Amino acid sequence: MALGFGVAAVAPFVLNGAKAFAQEGKVDVKEIVKDTKNEKEKKEREHGSSAREMKSAALLADGTLYAGGKGGLAVQKGGEWSIVKDFPLDEAKSVAAGTDGSLWVAGKQGLHLLKDGKWSIAKEGDMHSVSVATDGTVLAVGKKGFFSRNSAGEWSEAPALLPEGVTMPPEKEKEEKEKHGEEKEKEKLHD
């Protein structure tokens, strides 16, 4: 994580330095810092801060709205937004409302459950997404598989792969890889 942050933090300086060197043959560090700061401010104006960007949202039956993203988890009650301070994850990749008023949250540190005001870990490992069916069945997909929890609380697991013979068309697969590559590059620049 520190390496990724370091690379993302230094990349704009390197790019602006290379640009300045190519254009003028000499490098002015103050000008590079100024250009980098201006680019960052422009991107934040155009796209918003990544700490404020929502990736997923869930509306509970009582009207409470949760929004998750890279910055953690936020909640809206009675029209007022606040940050969930006791949220146990760094990032909320996906959030889902449980049929019993609970909240399920998928993140890099696992699948977490907020029930009756208390957090618990339901599954460990890097989780990508979570959803809850109307019968209370919880479905989660992570790096280590596809997980299903029935209404009795029993978990089952399967590989996170489509069945044999079912594949994405090559062009769709290529588009997905390119899209994810572009998203990762954008994430590096925003971090």
Provide an overview of this structure.
This protein is α+β, with helices and mostly antiparallel strands and 191 residues long. It folds into two domains: 2-47, no CATH class; 56-158, TolB, C-terminal domain (Neuraminidase, 6 Propeller). It is built from three helices and twelve strands; from the N terminus they run ααββββββββββββα. The protein has helices spanning 2-24, 29-47, 170-190, and strands at residues 56-59, 65-69, 72-77, 80-83, 94-97, 103-107, 110-115, 118-123, 127-132, 138-142, 145-149, 155-158. A four-stranded antiparallel beta sheet has the order 1-2-3-4, with no helix packed on it. It has a four-stranded antiparallel beta sheet with strand order 5-6-7-8, with no helix packed on it. Strand 11 and strand 12 form a beta hairpin. Helix 1 (2-24) crosses helix 3. The radius of gyration is 21 Å and the shape is flat. The N and C termini lie close together (11 Å). The relative contact order is 0.10.
In what order do the strands lie side by side in the largest sheet? 1-2-3-4
Question: How far is the N terminus from the C terminus?
Answer: 11 Å
Low-confidence blocks of residues: 1-23
Total strand segments: 12
List descriptors.
four-stranded antiparallel beta sheet; Neuraminidase; alpha+beta; single chain; 191 residues; 3 helices
SSE order and pairing:
Layout: H1 2-24, H2 29-47, E1 56-59, E2 65-69, E3 72-77, E4 80-83, E5 94-97, E6 103-107, E7 110-115, E8 118-123, E9 127-132, E10 138-142, E11 145-149, E12 155-158, H3 170-190
